[in-house]
Design a protein that fits this description.
It contains 25 helices and 33 strands. Strand 1 and strand 2 form a beta hairpin. By secondary structure, the protein is of the alpha+beta class. Helix 1 packs antiparallel against helix 4, helix 1 packs parallel to helix 7 and helix 3 packs across helix 10. Helix content is about 35%, strand content about 20%.
């Protein structure tokens, strides 16, 4: 700031410095600008040496330019979605500026611009004298010198990362006081003189108009014309050009976009340069510029009079920045920004990337599909932004199979940067915490896909049957310990139940997946470790929402005992991670990293597109068999989300403790993941309804619409056939349970992985309840087959063997307690007349009830009327 009071000593000291430096400057500048003039003497030679030893090459860094982020509209045209800037600038070429603007700036700032060699010596010395005597900040510089000062300031600011550093840049390039001020002026002169030797006047003039500040964050003539008058630099009128030209001396004093607030105040504290006073300061300065233009013959008397008669008439256009301008895609925009701030393609450090976002002039072309985004917004609208009974959140995300390109990203709550507007949020429910998301949402049974894949990777068939009934399950935790997990439907804390209190069954992994059977998947976990399942999830790019590997407990968790239950989806994950994992299955095992940027171009045209990779994570056999199994879900728990458009899709439902509900699935072209649940808190979804749906089922309204829109636009093929080895029927040993009690037999068979049916009791000599029949019999049979067992009723007796005469045999059987005894004769010529017993029906030894009819069979020479 200029000093208001100065001592006589200070003034004299300043004048003394001025005399010395100005003398040197006069000699040096005269010698440099007009070499034909003879300069002699030791002083001149010494001064020339000092001046010549100053740096002469001015490094002109690229202009600070807004970064622009684009999306495509439905017709495939690139449209601006958002922009970010420290300096609102629209660069123009020389022929994109109305010549009257050049006339205005030259007349008001440097009328000899086209004739001097870079330095207006008289103006510079006058300014130096003023600075020394009264602390004035008058520049007294040529346009070339002003351009040099702006370049030095911007070069400095382009490296600044804090507001304090920006202010330091301003101070270092505008200081006018004392020896430091003189030194700066001389250095500016040195740069200016050398610059004029290398660059044309037109290039310097255009460079100045493109770089200089016009108040606030408005930089350059292109942005100034748009901001203040809603026009282009090419269409500026004389009055408008004079107004803008007049601003460069004190941009924030002469700006006229603050309305009634004004840019300064009078002695009474009242605002000045306002709408009310006709922007008096700006008007006076504009009229000064018009006068200079007239005096220089740049405009006629008529043009001068007409322009001077015009009032200052702003037509302010505020060039909004930030993702709030990305209407309907704000969260996707913020995700893209998070990539720009983190990907090395945009800079080596966090600070450099953040600076490039606001100053680098990059053009970012994104992957967003306008049609799918709109369909997603309409589908997600069934979930209200606010309800009275819970913190209700919902999101949907779609990715392209085989590329990882993010096609849509929606949620129920509108975006606001601070989240201070009711019903809005700054949190992106679809992504990880580092990308602007939360710590994630518990995935529920959609996480079971990783158990399925783990099972297949162990070479096990989805048609292998195991005992999936409720009961204690022993699983290994990630620290190597074994923990018993109680599966039942009691609802006790820590106990795991099945959906709709299903007691489970012995069945195949295919059926467990179709029915989303918790007890079945925990039985699988007894054969494949939980940690290996979590490693599979990590292999497919899924982590806790805060980035912690799923094999570890995140720092914020207070319940490390949850680790063994990760098989059922207690881990909080990001929907985008799950979408990429399901897309990898649909891509026959190829996992692609999330891709939100199709192309990125630096200000100089260099391609700086961040590279994402796609690589095989699952074998084709595992991926195709997983897809085959997930197709079955659409006739099971996923039946409510069926689309019916003929496009093959697979999916997996998930409900975590009725607090979160998911639907994840894919065609061969597009994967869709939908989540609804508690953004915070633990309210039960099944206790509430919205838009005609129970909240736990409202996913069935959203997912079909989003996936259906993708099917309509992208289509879809049949999934590859499953692997034969991974779908084979598995044979196993069926134990014999003959002689066991019913309970013993049932436990033995179920433990071996078989389902059991207890049939009606049958006659047996064994004690009642003893198993005496088993079907199929012991031996090799299909794993998980149903075995029917029948117990003895304890009322059986063996048919005794009889012989001799028929009458004696009948009597013997009656004596043995059989009440229904008959005889049957077969005539034979060589038989005896009395007949000989040949056997019984049932045969001797057969176990029957005593009420069973026994027939004595015999032969006789002549049966006659015998029986």
């Amino acid at each position: 700031m200029p000093q208001l009071k100065r001592t006589a000593t200070g003034v004299l000291g300043g004048l003394a410095g001025l005399v010395g430096l100005s003398a040197v400057a006069g000699i040096l500048v005269t010698a440099t600008v007009t070499p034909a003039i003879a300069v002699s003497g030791y002083a001149a030679t010494s001064a020339l040496d000092t001046f010549e030893n100053m740096p002469s090459f001015l490094q002109v860094d690229p202009l600070m330019l807004p970064t622009e982020i684009y999306r495509k509209d439905s017709a495939g045209n690139d449209i601006l979605m958002a922009q970010f800037y420290d300096q609102n600038r629209i660069p123009v070429t020389f022929d994109q500026v109305n010549p009257v603007m050049y006339d205005a700036i030259i007349s008001s700032e440097d009328k000899n611009f086209y004739t001097h060699g870079g330095v207006d010596l008289l103006g510079t010395l006058s300014a130096l004298a003023g600075n020394a005597s009264n602390g004035s900040n008058r520049g007294g510089s040529s346009i070339t010198q002003q351009y040099v000062k702006n370049v030095l300031q911007q070069n400095c600011e382009s490296e600044a990362t804090t507001e304090e550093q920006v202010q330091a840049c301003y101070a270092s390039t505008t200081v006018n006081k004392g020896a430091e001020g003189y030194q700066r002026k001389l250095q500016e002169m040195r740069y200016a003189i050398q610059l004029e030797k290398k660059s044309s006047k037109d290039d310097i003039l255009l460079g100045y108009l493109n770089i200089t500040n016009f108040g606030g964050t408005v930089y350059g003539i292109g942005a100034a014309a748009e901001h203040y008058f809603n026009t282009t630099a090419a269409n500026l009128t004389i009055a408008q050009a004079a107004t803008i030209a007049g601003m460069v001396q004190a941009p924030n004093t002469y700006r006229f976009d603050l309305g009634d607030a004004g840019t300064t105040t009078d002695k009474a504290g009242n605002p000045v340069n306002t709408t009310a006073d006709g922007f008096s300061l700006t008007l006076a300065r504009r009229n000064y510029v018009l006068q200079r233009m007239f005096d220089d013959g740049k405009i006629s008397q008529e043009e001068y009079d007409a322009a001077k008669a015009e009032p200052i008439t702003p037509n302010i256009v505020n060039r909004d920045q930030g993702c709030k301008t990305a209407t309907g895609a704000e969260f996707f925009c913020e995700y893209v920004v998070s990539i720009i701030k983190s990907d090395p393609a945009f800079g080596e450090t966090n600070e450099e990337r953040a600076a490039n976002l606001r100053r680098g002039g990059m053009k970012i072309y994104t992957t967003l599909d306008a049609d799918l985004q709109q369909a997603g917004l309409e589908a997600i609208s069934v979930v209200p932004a606010t309800v009275s009974y819970m913190d209700l959140g919902s999101s949907g995300v779609q990715v392209e199979v085989g590329t990882g390109r993010i096609l849509s990203m929606v949620q129920n709550r509108p975006y606001s940067p601070a989240g201070d507007v009711p019903g809005t949020t700054p949190v992106n429910y679809n992504v990880r915490e580092k990308n602007g998301g939360s710590i994630g949402h518990s995935a529920g049974s959609t996480y079971k896909v990783f158990s399925l894949i783990n099972w297949l990777q162990q070479g096990k068939s989805v048609n292998q049957a195991i005992n999936g009934r409720v009961g204690p399950k022993k699983v290994q935790t990630c620290d190597g310990a074994t923990q018993t997990v109680q599966t039942d439907n009691t609802g006790q804390p820590g106990h795991i139940g099945n959906f709709e209190n299903n007691n489970g069954y012995t069945g195949t992994i295919y059926n467990f997946t179709r029915d989303s059977l918790n007890s079945g998947f925990l039985s699988m976990a007894e054969q494949i470790s939980v940690c290996s399942t979590n490693e599979v999830a990590g292999q497919l790019g899924v982590t806790w929402g805060d980035g912690t590997p799923l094999t570890e407990v995140p720092s914020w968790s207070t319940d490390p005992a949850n680790a063994p239950y990760n098989v059922l989806g207690s881990s909080a994950v990001a929907p985008l991670d799950m979408a990429e994992a399901y897309a990898a299955i649909a891509a026959n095992g190829i996992l692609c990293q999330p891709k939100s940027i199709d192309k990125a171009v630096a200000a100089d045209g260099t391609d700086i597109t961040p590279q994402t990779t796609c690589e095989r994570k699952l074998s084709e056999a595992v991926a195709s068999t997983a897809a085959y199994t997930l197709v079955g879900v659409m006739s099971g728990t996923g039946v409510g989300a069926r689309i019916g458009d003929g496009t093959p899709v697979f999916g997996k439902t998930g409900i975590h403790q009725y607090e979160q509900t998911w639907m994840d699935g894919s065609s061969t072209k597009v994967a869709t993941v939908v989540w609804v649940g508690n953004a915070t808190g633990a309210v039960k979804l099944n206790a509430h309804r919205e838009s005609g749906y129970q909240l736990s089922r409202i996913r069935n309204s959203i997912w079909p619409k989003m996936q259906g829109a993708a099917n309509s636009k992208y289509g879809g093929d049949n999934f590859p056939a499953p692997d034969a080895a991974l779908t084979k029927q598995v044979l196993t040993n069926l134990p014999s349970v003959i002689g066991m009690t019913i309970d013993q037999a049932t436990k033995t068979l179920e433990t071996a992985g078989f389902s059991v049916i207890v049939g009606d009791a049958v006659d047996g000599v064994e004690g009642a309840g003893t198993v005496i029949q088993q079907n199929p019999a012991a031996g090799r049979t299909a794993a998980g087959a149903t075995v029917t067992i029948r117990p003895s009723n304890g009322q059986g007796v063996a048919v005794p063997a009889v012989s001799g005469k028929p009458a004696d045999a009948v009597q013997a059987l009656r004596s043995a307690g059989f009440g229904l005894v008959e005889s049957s004769c077969t005539q034979k010529d060589d038989a005896s007349d009395d007949g000989t017993v040949t056997g019984t029906d049932p045969a001797a030894g057969t176990i029957v009830n005593r009420s069973t009819q026994i027939t004595v069979q015999y032969q006789a020479k002549n049966c006659g009327g015998r029986r």
